TrEMBL record:
Cellular localization per UniProt: Mitochondrion membrane
Record-linked InterPro entries: NCA2-like
Protein name: ATP synthase regulation protein NCA2-domain-containing protein
UniProt superkingdom: Eukaryota
Length: 600
C-alpha cells in the first residue's frame, strides 16, 4: 500500500528529467547524439536500469556503485567538459538517482509510521474490553512465567546458591538486589522498566503504555515524513548538483532546516544515505520496537490456548485416522455420487436438449395434435365395444367397464379373443372375428403411433423439465460458494460497493482524522506527515475497494490527489474534505447505520 502511494507521490519528479542544454523543449530521451562513447553507453545503461528494474535499496546501491566507478575513470574527463549531451545524460542519471533515493527514504518512514499506527490500534482493541485483557493475560502467561523463572535462576547463580525453594526464600528474605520483588514484577511486566508507578501494575495499563509509545513513534515518523514532503517542490525544479547535495543531506537528517550548499559532493552524499543512513535508521527503529516490546503477539503466542483445549478435536482426529479406510471409502462414494449427478442429471440431459434442438425432433414421423389422438382412441373404443357385444355377448355393465379399461389402455379381453382366433385362423376368418380383431390391432397401433408423435412434439419440453432440477441445484451451490468466497476474501463479511463494513468504517475514521488535523492544526511538519499517513490509507481503500474503471473510483482518487497536493493550503484542503463528505458519503455508505453507525 505504501509503495503504491509513494510511486504516485514521486511520479511528477520522475517525468521531469533535466533537458539537454540549448534544447529546453526537447526531452533527453529524444536528444540528438553528437558522438557515441563508452561513457554515454554506460550512463544510458544506468538510466535504463533505473527505469526498468523495481525500486529497491539494493538496486540503487548497484547503480550508485556503477556511476561512482564511471566517475573515477580519468579517460572521460575531456569528454565530460566538452560534450553537452554527455553532461545532459549524466544530469538526468544523477537527478533520477536522487529522486529514487528520496522515494526510498519516504517509503521507509511511511512504512514504519503505518506499522506503528496499525500496532497501536491493535493494542487499543485489546485494552478496550475486560475479556480482551483477560485473553491477553492468558496468552502471555507462559512468557511472563519464563521471564520470572529466568530472573530467579540468574539471581541464584550470581549468589552461588543451589536452585532450591529454600535458596529462593533466603534471597527474598534478605531482599537481595538480584532478587528483589520489584525485579520479579518487572520481569513479569516489562513495561515497569519504563513506567514504574503503582497504577502501572495492570494489564490494561500495559496495553495503553504500548499504544502510547507506538503513537509517539508514529508521530516521530510522521514529522520526518512532513519534512521530506517539503523537499518535493525543490526536487521538481531540477536544481544544480550542489543544491541536490544539500537536499540529500536533508534527506538523511530531515530535522535540519537547511544544509550548506557546496559543503560536500553529491555522489558521496548519495552513497552515505543509501549504504549508511537508511539501514541505520531501520535498525534503530527495530531495536526500539523490540526494546519496548511493542510488537503484536505472534501466531503461536495467540493460538496456544486454542491448542491446549483442543483435546476433543485431537481425539476426533485420532478416531478419523483409525477409521481412515472407511473415510476413504466414504469419500470415494461421495465422488461417484457427485460424478453420477453431474453426468446423469446435468451433462446428459443438456446433451439431449442440444441434440433435440439440432435435429428438430426428426425420426418420429409427422407431428399430430391432441385432438387427432383423441379421435383415434374413441374409434378404438367403439370398435372394441362392438366386438365385445357381438362376439362375447357382454352386458351393458360389462361394456361400461370395458370402456373404462380402453380409456386407460387396458385391452385384455380383446387381446385374449385375438389369441384364441390365432389358434384357429381358418375358422376365425370364416366366422369374421379374426378380421375384426386385426382391424382393432391396426387401430391400436395407429393410436399408439399418434401418442408417440404427440410425445415427440413435446420432447424439448420434457428435456428441459428433466434437467431443470439439476440446474437449480448447481445454481444454488454455485451462488453459496461464490458468497462464501467473497466473504472470506473481504474479511468474513458480505462484499458490497465500497468494500466490507469494516473497510468502510476504517475509511470513515480516516476521513474524520484528516478533517480533524486540518481543522485543529496548522500545516506543520508533523501535521503534514500525519496527513500523508492518512492519505496512504485512503488511497489504498480507493484502489482496493472501488470498482476499477468506475466513475466513483476515478472521482474519489482525484479528490485524494487534491489532498496530496502540497501546493494547496489548509483552507483549500478543508473544502476538498467537505466535497468528499458530500459526494461520497452516501455513495460509499459512510452515512448508513448498517455500515458505520452500528460499528462505532
Amino acid at each position: 500500500m505504501s509503495t503504491q502511494f509513494i510511486d504516485h507521490y514521486v511520479h511528477p519528479l520522475t517525468v521531469s528529467r533535466p533537458t539537454t542544454p540549448g534544447e529546453e523543449k526537447r526531452e533527453y530521451s529524444v536528444a540528438v547524439a553528437t558522438r557515441e562513447t563508452p561513457r554515454k553507453r554506460a550512463l544510458r545503461e544506468i538510466l535504463g536500469a533505473l527505469d526498468s528494474k523495481p525500486r529497491s535499496l539494493e538496486a540503487l546501491k548497484e547503480q550508485l556503485e556503477a556511476l561512482t566507478r564511471l566517475e573515477g575513470d580519468g579517460e572521460t574527463t575531456i569528454v565530460v567538459a566538452t560534450d553537452d549531451e554527455d553532461q545532459a545524460i549524466r544530469k538526468a542519471v544523477v537527478h533520477r538517482l536522487v529522486v529514487e533515493l528520496y522515494a526510498e527514504t519516504m517509503e521507509a518512514h511511511l512504512a514504519q509510521a503505518s506499522q506503528a499506527e496499525e500496532d497501536s490500534e491493535w493494542w487499543a482493541d485489546v485494552a478496550r474490553s475486560k475479556s480482551g485483557v483477560s485473553l491477553y493475560l492468558l496468552q502471555t502467561l507462559p512468557a511472563r512465567l519464563s521471564r520470572v523463572l529466568s530472573t530467579i535462576l540468574d539471581a541464584l547463580r550470581a549468589e552461588n546458591l543451589p536452585a532450591t525453594l529454600t535458596s529462593v526464600r533466603t534471597l527474598l528474605a534478605r531482599e537481595a538486589r538480584a532478587l528483589h520483588p520489584a525485579s520479579l514484577l518487572a520481569a513479569a511486566f516489562p513495561h515497569l522498566h519504563h513506567q514504574a508507578r503503582p497504577l502501572s501494575l495492570t494489564l490494561a495499563h500495559e496495553c495503553r503504555f504500548k499504544r502510547g509509545e507506538l503513537a509517539r513513534l508514529r508521530d516521530e515518523r510522521a514529522e520526518t515524513l512532513g519534512h521530506l514532503a517539503s523537499l518535493r517542490a525543490e526536487l521538481r525544479d531540477a536544481p544544480s548538483e550542489q543544491e541536490l547535495a544539500a537536499l540529500v543531506q536533508r534527506m538523511g537528517d530531515p530535522s535540519q532546516a537547511q544544509a550548506r550548499i557546496g559543503s560536500s559532493a553529491l555522489l558521496p552524499e548519495l552513497t552515505a544515505l543509501c549504504t549508511g543512513v537508511l539501514p541505520a535508521q531501520a535498525a534503530a527503529h527495530r531495536a526500539r520496537v523490540q526494546e519496548l516490546g511493542l510488537l503484536r503477539l505472534g501466531y503461536w503466542t495467540r493460538m496456544w490456548p486454542v491448542f491446549a483445549v483442543a483435546h476433543p478435536p485431537l481425539a476426533a482426529g485420532g478416531y478419523a485416522w483409525r477409521s481412515r479406510d472407511a473415510l476413504v471409502e466414504m469419500l470415494r462414494d461421495a465422488r461417484e455420487t457427485a460424478r453420477g449427478f453431474l453426468i446423469g442429471y446435468l451433462i446428459e440431459p443438456i446433451k439431449d436438449v442440444v441434440r433435440t434442438v439440432r435435429t428438430g425432433g426428426e425420426g418420429g414421423g409427422m407431428l399430430v395434435h391432441k385432438e387427432a389422438v383423441e379421435a383415434d382412441i374413441e374409434s378404438l373404443e367403439r370398435m372394441t365395444l362392438a366386438l365385445a357385444r357381438d362376439k362375447l355377448s357382454y352386458t351393458q355393465a360389462q361394456l361400461d367397464n370395458l370402456s373404462a379399461q380402453v380409456r386407460v389402455g387396458d385391452l385384455t379381453p380383446v387381446m385374449e379373443m385375438y389369441e384364441e382366433d390365432i389358434r384357429r385362423p381358418l375358422r376365425s376368418v370364416l366366422a369374421g372375428s379374426l378380421l375384426r380383431n386385426v382391424f382393432v390391432q391396426v387401430d391400436i397401433d395407429q393410436a399408439l403411433s399418434g401418442i408417440d408423435r404427440l410425445l415427440k412434439s413435446q420432447e424439448l419440453t420434457f428435456a428441459f423439465v428433466g434437467v431443470a432440477p439439476a440446474l437449480l441445484v448447481v445454481y444454488l451451490l454455485g451462488g453459496a460458494t461464490s458468497r462464501l468466497y467473497s466473504s472470506a476474501r473481504r474479511g468474513g463479511r458480505y462484499y458490497r460497493a465500497g468494500g466490507s463494513r469494516s473497510e468502510r468504517v476504517q475509511a470513515w475514521f480516516v476521513m474524520r482524522r484528516i478533517e480533524r488535523l486540518l481543522v485543529a492544526h496548522e500545516l506543520s511538519a508533523r501535521t503534514s506527515g500525519l496527513l500523508l499517513l492518512s492519505l496512504t490509507h485512503l488511497r489504498g481503500y480507493g484502489e482496493r475497494c472501488l470498482l476499477r474503471g468506475s466513475r466513483v473510483r476515478e472521482g474519489f482518487l482525484e479528490d485524494v490527489d487534491d489532498l496530496e497536493d502540497p501546493e494547496l493550503g489548509r483552507a483549500e484542503k478543508l473544502r476538498v474534505v467537505e466535497r468528499m463528505w458530500r459526494c461520497w458519503g452516501d455513495a460509499l455508505g459512510w452515512g448508513r447505520r448498517d455500515s458505520v453507525g452500528e460499528a462505532i
